[in-house]
Amino acid sequence: xxxxxxxxxxxxxxxxxxxxxxxxxxxxxxxxxxxxxxxxxxxxxxxxxxxxxxxxxxxxxxxxxxxxxxxxxxxxxxxxxxxxxxxxxxxxxxxxxxxxxxxxxxxxxxxxxxxxxxxxxxxxxxxxxxxxxxxxxxxxxxxxxxxxxxxxxxxxxxxxxxxxxxxxxxxxxxxxxxxxxxxxxxxxxxxxxxxxxxxxxxxxxxxxxxxxxxxxxxxxxxxxxxxxxxxxxxxxxxxxxxxxxxxxxxxxxxxxxxxxxxxxxxxxxxxxxxxxxxxxxxx
Length: 283
Description:
8 helices
């Protein structure tokens, strides 16, 4: 792990990220020695610092370290975390030290490449994600919603699940943003009240624009997703993964499950987007 530019495994117990979740992070895919979508990841980090009022001035040092790690490691996942640092009294932030930054490397999840070709099943989760418009869209260190969701998925042996907010609208999955296509139109849930505005979601929106396709964002229900012609999920590490089934529960005898034909023609939106992402890496 890299802490403030130096190799270390020692995280100060007084760090506010440890004590209060007072910070945020982004997860970068490394391929061929490059940190993919780095500009979008930096924009995410800068936005979160602004919203959370974290004073961070080490951008040049951070970017250099990210590029050095990508070049040295060649491939894998690089988690970039920024915390407010140490200090303050209780929750108060007056008198805090300089912000801290951390780089952690992990291998790519083995399942992601299989999902990209064979698809993934999503279980409809019973747990509902909290609504907080002030922090919606940000990837803060407060991930207890996702921990609870993952516990539910693990209890049912499910790989991932479709998650709604407490006001009943589809938001995302446990680890990804969700998109679907109906009658040639592409839809995705709004993250203005809940959820994470993913880096790959932003990139997909830009790609769809270049392909002269409009992305519709709003408040949608599970029924809206179930009625789709195709569904896919995205994050910056997995890329684009097609959904082959939406299950009301993880039982294989689920009579209410909705299945999607992944053997469709190459005109499927998820296939086109996968090809576009591959082209970008190759160039």
